[in-house]
Structure formats: C-alpha cells, structure tokens
Design a protein that fits this description.
Strand content: 5-15%
Helix content: 40-55%
Order of helices and strands: HHHEHHHEHEHEEEEH
Oligomer: single chain
Number of domains: 2
Strand order of the largest sheet: 3-2-4-1-6-7-5
Number of helices: 9
CATH architecture of the largest domain: 3-Layer(aba) Sandwich
Largest sheet: 7 strands, mixed
CATH superfamily of the largest domain: Phosphoglycerate mutase-like
Number of strands: 7
C-alpha cells in the first residue's frame, strides 16, 4: 500500500512539474513576442512601408477572360491617383522592314516626316491615330492628370503624344528605339534616358507621359531600370505602357499594361442598363 502511494506521489509530482514547465515556457514565449513587437514598432525593424509599396497580388499571373489580372486593376487605379511616369509604346504603324533606316535618315535630315513619301514607314496608320485619340479620351474620362508629355523624335511617337494629349512639352532623343541607333551609342543613350527619368518633376496627383518605343527599357537592362517588377518590361504591344516610379534614387518598373485595352478593361465598367 505504501509503495503504491509513493509511486502515485512521484507521478503526481512529475505531472505538476511538466505543467509548471509548460506554463513557464508559454509565458516566456509570450513575453518575448511582446518585447519583439515593441522593438519592431519603436525602431521600425521590419519594413512595413516596403510591403505597402508592392501589393500582395502584384505577382499574380492569373487573368480573367478579358486578359486582366488583379494587379492590372490595382495599378489602373494607381495611375488615376497619379504620381508616376508612364512610358508608352507608340500606337500602330505599318510594318516596314527598313523602318530603322527610314527613322535614322528622317531624323538626320530633320524633315517633316508626315509630308514625305515614306511617311507610312515612320508615322502612324489611320488606326494608330484613332488608338492615340482613344488614349487621350479615356484619360480625360477617368480624370487622369498628365502634367507633362515628352516624346521620342520619331514621327509615330510624336503623333501618338499629339493625338492623345494635344501637346508635346519636350522632345528627347534618348526615347528613340535602339534599332535606329548605332551600337556604339547604346550606352550613351541609355545613360541619357535614365538621367531623364530621374530628373523629371513628378508631382502627387499627376503623371508624366513618355511617348516612345518598345524594346527601350528592357534591352538596356539595369542601365535604365534598377528593379523590374513586371518580369518582362518590354513585352508589350503598341499602345502598351509601363508604370515607372522613383524611390530613393532608384527607377522601379512597377507594372506593365501589355496593351492600352488592358488598362481600359481593368478600370472601365459598362452599366447593365
């Protein structure tokens, strides 16, 4: 009988010890959690602001039947809010094999492209004109503020800017597509484009438009852009545009609308009746 009681006491003691140990461990973990939380809030150890800058669904690849993703909808609203640089690829042009040669000749000659016999090679088609007008009409409908419009010197980039926004505030050769530039000048043009992007005065609530070409941002790699959150910044159609943001001296490609229709489908809602 005494032996049984002794065993029972020992077992009970072990249970009590285990219970006390678990309680102490829980209290210690809770205390550490509170202490860590206080340090995080006080000293900003964890970069909450960086998380806010990139939405959780920014990397989502799923698109709806219209080809629009949650990220498209998010960034369409951010464009309306303003504060970004929008790098547009010009609207539709005819596809001539020797367009780069015509561009180079036209720019060096300094002629009025639209009046030349080769105008169809370097300027917009009738469809491109209407596409450009649509860009401006949608921006006005949505009250997207555009403080400044800077264009490549090519006819189609200038026409895209003019038909869309009714003005061109500046021409910059660095926006020209690479195929019209000798390879030995690529580094210089890339440096100038980066300098342009970093020097633009972007005010809250408004955007700055760069009317240029495809294969201009990505082909120059980190010489122009520091961070590419689009994964393929130049994989876009005519009228497509990239949302650029400057953060602490870095150029970040936040989002890419492959075509202007992606922007439209992401933000415009047609009433049922």
């Amino acid at each position: 009988m005494c032996v049984c009681l002794e065993v029972l006491v020992v077992k009970s003691s072990r249970v009590v010890v285990l219970a006390l140990s678990a309680t102490l461990f829980f209290c210690l973990a809770l205390a550490i959690s509170f202490a860590w939380g206080a340090l995080v809030v006080r000293h900003e150890i964890f970069p909450y602001q960086a998380l806010e800058a990139v939405p959780v669904f920014a990397l989502e690849s799923e698109k709806d039947q219209a080809g629009v993703s949650a990220a498209d909808r998010y960034w369409a609203q951010k464009v309306i809010d303003g504060g970004y640089i929008l790098h547009f690829r010009h609207a539709q042009r005819e596809k001539w094999n020797d367009v780069a040669a015509f561009d180079a000749y036209d720019l060096l000659r300094g002629s009025g492209s639209a009046a030349e016999s080769y105008a169809k090679a370097v300027c917009l088609t009738e469809q491109g004109v209407e596409e450009s007008r649509l860009i401006g009409s949608v921006f006005r409908l949505l009250n997207v503020k555009v403080a400044r419009v800077i264009a490549s010197p090519s006819c189609r980039a200038k026409e895209t800017a003019q038909y869309a926004f009714g003005r061109i505030d500046g021409i910059d050769n660095s926006l020209l597509h690479r195929t019209a530039i000798p390879p030995e000048q690529w580094d210089g043009f890339a440096a100038q484009l980066r300098s342009l992007i970093l020097s633009i005065d972007v005010q809250p609530g408004t955007n700055v438009v760069l009317s240029g070409h495809g294969r201009r941002l990505g082909d120059d790699g980190d010489r122009v852009i520091d961070v590419d959150e689009t994964q393929d910044v130049d994989g876009r159609d005519e009228t497509g545009f990239v949302v650029l943001e400057r953060v602490e001296g870095k150029v970040i490609a936040r989002h890419k609308f492959t075509s202007f229709k992606n922007f439209v489908n992401a933000i415009l809602e047609v009433p049922l009746t």
